[in-house]
Every structure is written in structure tokens, then in C-alpha cells.
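Title: Prediction job returns without error message
Component: structure pipeline
Severity: low
Priority: P3
Assignee: unassigned

Description:
Job completed but the reporter wants confirmation the result is attached to the right record. Sequence as submitted:
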Amino acid sequence: MVEYRETIVIEVDRSRVWMAINDPGILESCIPGCQEFSGTSEDGYSARVTLKIGPVKATFNGTVQLEDVVDGTSCTIIGEGQGGVAGFAKGSAKVKLVDATEGTEMTYEVDARVGGKIARLGSRLIKGSAKKIADEFFQRLRDELTDSGHPEDEGVQVVDSVTAHSQ
């Protein structure tokens, strides 16, 4: 299991961030490698995602669910998929939103698990890949909300980071 926490500030109000997390079109555009996405936040989503983890590139067919929803404040985004001979991937991001002077402070705590061929790559490579995928998702979310797309823009500020560790 890989775990880490990141806190960023997005320079829009909390209600806009919350609406984006619950918008299937925005979720689809934010998931790295997403090829297909359908469903609802109430019933869950089906997704087809192609990811490269180290030297292994695989297409995963799976689901995305929003659980532990506290309207406007927090939720857990859970994704899991089967990648054929590559194995499986499961991950979650606990997302918490708090009003901040600059907009919205968003904290996400990520954990990921893999099995099969991917698991043989080693925990260090898996940790790095999981962090990269999660950070890319939340950066894309921030870009959707700020109409930016440039990491050097001031729409996001990293406030706190906890080093990833393996359990």
C-alpha cells in the first residue's frame, strides 16, 4: 500500500471545487489515460484507462465511486480496475475541502495497491507512479477550475506534503 498526503490551494470558491468533483465530464478529463467514462456519482462510474507504470503499459477496465460523501466538504474517490495479464490496480483519494483566504484548500490522502505483473516492479517505482497519477489528476482538476493549464501559474499552491511510505 502506498500512502501520501498533499494539500493545495485552488483559487476558486469551495462550491465550484465541489461541483467539479461531482461532474462526470470533468472527472473524465482529469483521469490520466481515460479513454471511456460513463455513469453517475450516485451509482458509480465505469471507466477504461490506459496507464504506464514503469515499463508496463496496460489498459484497465474498472469502476470509480464517490463514497463517504459529506456534501460540499469531503468524499473518498475510489477506483479499481483489471488490467489483464498486467494485473490489477486499486486506489483511493480522501478529499477534504476547506475555505481559505485565497480560495479553497484541498487536502487529498492517497493510497494505492497493485497486484500481478505490476506488483513485481517494486514498491519504489509503484509509489512514484501512484503519486504521479494522483498529482496529475488533481493538477488537471485545478486547471479545469482556473482555465490555466500551466503549472507555473499561481492557481495552485502546495501547502503541505507528507512523504509517501509503503505499508
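Comment from assignee: result matches the submitted record. Helices lie at 14-21, 24-30, 123-146.
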